[in-house]
Design brief:
The complex is a heterodimer of chains A (370) and B (440). Chain A is mainly α and 370 residues long. Chain A has 15 helices and 2 strands. In chain B, a hairpin with a 2-residue loop joins β18 and β19. The chains are: A mainly alpha (370), B alpha/beta (440).
């Protein structure tokens, strides 16, 4: 008996081991997230001090002034957040179903392209009051088709949706460039802003409309996913296609239907970009937001309300670090990319501490006391 | 504790990345290549800015399509820094916004610079023009000057605080073409190729007047010393696409092109040339470090004189020209030093001689007696050509995109490029140059 106890003691216990948390109270989870952001800010400050030779205070105030420095910057921040949020919401139903749609970039772009296509051919021939509704419908339809094609292939022939949707992005970009070449044969691949089918301005600018649309869509997607029968079907298909089939859900139908919705919402984002902001389309219109949206949706764990905060955080970082580069007179994006990388490293890393906890070895002293 | 270690490690990693990246740009020697110095043009006009004192609250704003990673934007950024330094601006008086797309964001960026107190704002890309014009018209912009490179509309827009600028870079291309022609002559002399095999290749971005004007002047420069030269042009449909430019150069080489030049901003074509051992004439800056065996020379626009001019005019409260065209004489059109592996002192002397003639007007790049033009139902429709194939008249698109053109630009046997506006409008397709694809 005594011998055994000695043996056990001689096996060295690690300093800590990882245990999965059964549940975590909400405030504790948010405390961990807040701590991660603070830690990320400290790391950023430290790095800025080493690389830029600027005080952390300068760095933080510069980043904050990039968003809150003027009313124009606040409006820019709200609008960029709204557009990113719209695209993130759009990809969410598909992701919740475990359909890895990497084609949001292209789906938004064809949406924008469809709007501009209508502006180009119908502008001046029909009044804006008729043109804008046409653009709205055509944009949503274009986005839906762009997402629907890979969905049909996946549902019918089990093709890989990640690659398929990714490839559709390139087709969308080339389609835009090809058409612009036809419209402007001696140009540089750019179409000037068109004066037709422009959405009305609210409070003298093109900022608020996107925000309003994003708020409405957030509410709709939240209700759809949480309270509708279709939202429930999406969750079941996402958990297990076999279970879904067993309880009588038509999996193919759900996949195709969900992707049509997802694509149409991307088309809506494209419509907002083309009709509401740029009044033209180019290969830069979406600017990588279709991919950032995937990150936003994941970080928010497919929760539309959390997505509001995550897309605001991402926009905050992009706009803020951009200002930091301007204030430091740096003409490249390496440093701002690194800062954003560090932020994500901490934010994604902290999810580990929310899901798991570290159990430290009890000290020898305590053992003896026992 | 573990977290602290992670923080430290990630910080170190990130820091070393930054240090690593920044040290890339410095670079050491130029390998085996020995530079053949090209003396600067001797009669550069030096405007007198001694009367200009920079107010403390003065700010100069710069908007760039990409950032330093692009040779095109780097050329503007370097010039802005140099101009700021020479005019006595402090670091905080030059405000740069990089990676601004040619979309509504450009207008917001310009207006944000206005909010920050900029007195003069410059944007560097063709597609920025419309948004800069909108920003110039916006409320609160009345006392701010908006300047734009490569743009075409300032002379018709009737907006007092909006201006265009460019340079007669076709003259620089012509001079670089002379170096190319002499390299071809050397090959013919050495028996490597016959005179009829003297074919050059050119990688272009778009079938856009600036590019057409550029490759035609390059070709005419080569032809002025090597009369049998021909050229093939391949377009990529992008200003910056490393793979497409590389593939285009490789395909031109495999078609028998003995020398390559390009009008696109990546290292794609020069790298392909170095690997194939084919001489290359570069653009926007020397590529001798990456291509010591094949680099010949590079022409570029030096924007420093223009930046100094707009800073001075803004402070003086005097008008900035609607269309400002930099020339050899203003110090805006410059060539790099040459490479002794691909050029000789004779080349340097030929360039210097032609440069003086271009600057004093005794030589014209687009002298219509130096090239012939073929007119068909679809090709060169705006041209008037005599029985010898000489261009006698040309209706160029100077004020707009009207299919018939709007301005007669051939005068006294010369196509007057960059005279009626600063941005190029030469889009004639001359004999001797074959376009392999014109889909872009």
């Amino acid at each position: 008996m005594n011998n055994e106890a000695v043996k056990v003691k001689s096996v060295r216990e690690p300093l800590f081991h990882v245990v999965k948390r059964t549940e975590i109270v909400w405030w504790k989870a948010w405390l961990i997230r807040a701590a991660a952001i603070v830690a990320a800010l400290v790391a950023t400050g430290l790095l800025s001090f080493i690389v830029l030779k600027k005080s952390p205070f300068f760095v933080y105030s510069s980043i904050f002034s990039g968003i809150f420095g003027s009313s124009r910057r606040i409006l820019m921040f709200l609008r960029s957040t709204a557009i990113l949020l719209l695209i993130s919401l759009a990809v969410t139903p598909a992701f919740k179903m475990r359909f890895w749609n990497t084609g949001a970039e292209g789906q938004v772009l064809v949406g924008a392209f469809a709007s501009v296509f209508c502006m180009y051919y119908l502008g001046g021939k029909v009044p804006d009051g008729i043109l804008i509704p046409i653009m709205f419908v055509v944009s949503l339809a274009a986005g839906a088709v762009w997402a629907g094609i890979p969905a049909v292939f996946r549902a019918k022939w089990k093709t890989n949706e990640t690659l398929f949707t990714l490839m559709m992005n390139y087709i969308a970009i080339q389609l835009v460039l090809y058409t612009i070449k036809i419209w402007r044969p001696t140009g540089t691949g750019k179409l000037e802003a068109l004066p037709y089918g422009n959405l009305p301005q609210i409070a003298g600018g093109d900022f608020w409309l996107s925000v309003i649309v994003a708020v409405i869509v957030t509410a709709l997607v939240y209700v759809y996913l949480k309270y509708s029968k279709q939202g429930y079907e999406i969750s079941v298909v996402g958990e297990s296609e076999n279970t879904a089939r067993y309880i009588g859900i038509d999996v193919k139908k759900v996949i195709i239907r969900t992707l049509l919705i997802s694509g149409a919402l991307c088309g809506l984002a494209g419509f907002m970009l083309a009709a509401g902001i740029d009044h033209t389309v180019s290969d830069e219109t979406v600017g990588g937001m279709g991919f950032t949206a995937i990150l936003v949706s994941w970080l928010a764990k497919f929760d539309p309300i959390a997505m509001v905060f995550v897309s605001a955080l991402v926009t905050f970082l992009q706009q803020g670090t951009g200002q930091l580069m301007t204030d430091c007179g740096i003409a490249n994006s390496f440093f701002s990319d690194i800062v954003i990388g560090i932020m994500f490293f901490f934010i994604i890393g902290c999810e580990f501490f929310i899901t798991y906890k570290l159990k430290f070895r009890k000290s020898d002293k305590k053992e003896k006391d026992k | 504790m573990k977290k602290l270690v992670t923080v430290a490690l990630s910080a170190v990693l990130a820091a070393s990345t930054v240090v690593g990246l920044s040290s890339c740009g410095e670079g050491g020697g130029t390998g085996d290549a020995v530079l053949l110095p090209l003396p600067a043009y001797e009669n550069i006009e030096e405007p007198d800015y001694s009367d200009v004192t920079i107010p403390e609250d003065f700010k100069f704003g710069l908007i760039c399509l990409h950032d330093e990673a692009s040779t095109y934007d780097k050329n503007f950024i370097d010039a802005a820094r140099k101009a700021a330094q020479e005019m006595g601006l402090s670091d905080s008086q030059l405000v740069m916004r990089t990676n601004i797309p040619e979309l509504a964001e450009c207008r917001e960026a310009a207006l944000d610079l206005v909010d920050q107190g900029c007195d003069v704002i410059f944007a560097d890309s063709f597609g920025h023009e419309q948004w800069m014009l909108e920003a110039a018209k916006a409320e609160g912009s009345e006392n701010v000057e908006f300047c734009h490179a490569t743009g075409t509309t300032a002379h018709t827009a009737n907006q007092d605080n909006f201006h265009n600028a460019f340079a007669s870079i076709y003259e620089g291309r012509y001079l670089a073409g002379i170096a190319a022609g002499m390299e071809l002559n050397q090959m013919i002399e050495d028996g490597e190729i016959t005179a009829s095999e003297a074919k050059m290749g050119y990688v272009g971005a778009y079938t856009y007047a600036e590019v057409i004007s550029g490759y035609t002047s390059f070709y005419l420069g080569a032809k002025s010393v090597c009369p049998t030269v021909t050229m093939e042009v391949q377009f990529t449909g992008s200003w910056y696409d490393v793979t497409a430019e590389r593939t285009a150069a490789e395909s031109l080489i495999s078609r028998g092109c003995k020398l390559i030049s390009q009008h696109a901003d990546s290292m794609g074509a020069p790298t392909a040339c170095e690997e194939a051992g084919v001489p290359n004439v570069s653009y926007n800056g020397s590529t001798i470090e990456a291509c010591p065996e094949t680099f010949i020379v590079s022409s570029r626009i030096d924007w420093t004189p223009y930046f100094k001019y707009i800073i001075a005019q803004t402070i003086r409260g005097e008008e900035i020209a609607d269309d400002w065209t930099g020339t050899i004489a203003t110090g805006s059109v410059v060539l790099t030093d040459l490479n002794s592996n691909t050029a000789t002192q004779e080349t340097v002397d030929a360039i210097v001689a032609a440069r003086t003639q271009l600057a004093n007007g005794t030589l014209n790049v687009f002298d219509t007696s130096k090239f012939t033009v073929t007119k068909t139902d679809t090709l060169n429709t705006r041209a008037t050509v005599d029985e010898n194939g000489r261009l006698t008249a040309y209706m160029a698109q100077v004020d707009g995109m009207d299919a018939a053109g709007d301005t007669q630009v051939v005068e006294n046997g010369v196509f007057e490029e960059s005279t009626f506006r600063s941005a190029p409008y030469f889009d004639v397709q001359i004999d001797g140059i074959t376009l392999l694809n014109s889909a872009f």
